[in-house]
Design a protein that fits this description.
Shape of chain A: elongated
Shape of chain B: globular
Number of strands of chain B: 7
Helix content of chain B: 40-55%
CATH class of chain B: Alpha Beta
Distance between the termini of chain B: 41 Å
Order of helices and strands of chain B: HEHEHEHEEHEEHHH
Structural class of chain A: mainly alpha
Number of strands of chain A: 0
Oligomer: heterodimer
Number of domains of chain B: 1
CATH topology of chain B: Beta Polymerase, domain 2
CATH architecture of chain B: 2-Layer Sandwich
Number of helices of chain A: 3
Helix content of chain A: over 70%
Largest sheet of chain B: 5 strands, mixed
Strand content of chain A: under 5%
Structural class of chain B: alpha+beta
Chain lengths: ~70, ~190
């Protein structure tokens, strides 16, 4: 990540952290679709991959990669 | 702080269902990435990291069977003796809900005085809205800034520092950092 992008990314993290701090009752409903979305997409992908030939083999390899 | 059940993410529900079983058998803590995510950090994770107190083979077998009975499966093996072997070799084991690839709970036995200290000082953190024990915020910040140190970890630490900016005990963070250097980085 270049210096400028890195700084902007840091700024974004700080802005969001301050929002969470200042809006304790609102932040979660904003974050939920993002967190859930990643898991829903990954599950959908793994289900499709499992249906392909060698899909389960690939899933095993992917899971070992993450361990 | 109460939030509606609809606000719970897939990760929250998975973690809460899992710890409900674990809690009957031993002391546990959730550490690392999920601590930051439960405090609103907007980043992805595939697993939740848990440390549990060291159990005997028999105690672990009862816990493992209870997890299976409650709809979880272990990626490494169904056989509790095999899973126990992993844990005693300081290797983590991973559980998911039966038939689901994600999310995963990655479990380790407490392995040294730092883990024992984390278990001893565990906390429920009301800001998260979750009924779960976490390692303390100071511990998480110290680990991320001293030991883990990836960009993602440094950002997690920064996020937690902002969330708890009036409440963080800097002396405690410094003491924990010293302990980490002494025990894990010698």
């Amino acid at each position: 990540m270049s210096g400028k992008v890195r700084e902007e990314h840091k700024d974004q993290i700080e802005r969001w952290a301050n929002y969470v701090r200042e809006h304790p009752y609102e932040w979660k409903s904003k974050l939920k679709p993002f967190i859930d979305g990643q898991i829903i997409m990954a599950r959908r992908f793994y289900s499709k991959l499992a249906e392909t030939s060698e899909g389960m083999e690939k899933i095993k390899l992917l899971r070992n990669l993450n361990s | 702080m109460d939030r509606g059940i609809d606000d719970k993410t897939i990760l929250d529900k998975f973690a809460e269902d899992f710890v409900r079983v674990i809690d009957k058998h031993c002391k546990y803590i959730i550490v690392s990435g999920f601590v930051a995510i439960a405090h609103g950090r907007s980043r992805g994770t595939e697993d939740i990291d848990m440390i549990i107190e060291k159990l005997s083979k028999e105690q672990f077998s009862i816990l493992h069977k209870d997890l299976l009975k409650n709809g979880f499966e272990c990626m490494q093996s169904e056989d509790s003796d095999v899973v126990y072997e992993y844990l005693t070799n300081k290797t983590s084991v991973r559980y998911t809900r039966i038939g689901e690839f994600l999310p995963e709970m990655e479990i380790k036995f407490a392995k040294d005085e730092i883990d024992e200290f984390q278990l001893k000082t565990r906390k429920k953190l009301p800001l998260t809205g979750s009924d779960i024990y976490f390692s303390s915020i100071e511990m998480n910040i110290a680990f991320k800034e001293t030991y883990l140190k990836s960009d993602k970890d440094m950002e997690d630490a920064r996020h937690l520092r902002i969330i708890y900016k009036d409440k963080i005990n800097e002396n405690e963070i410094n003491e924990i950092k010293k302990m980490i250097r002494r025990v894990r980085m010698k």
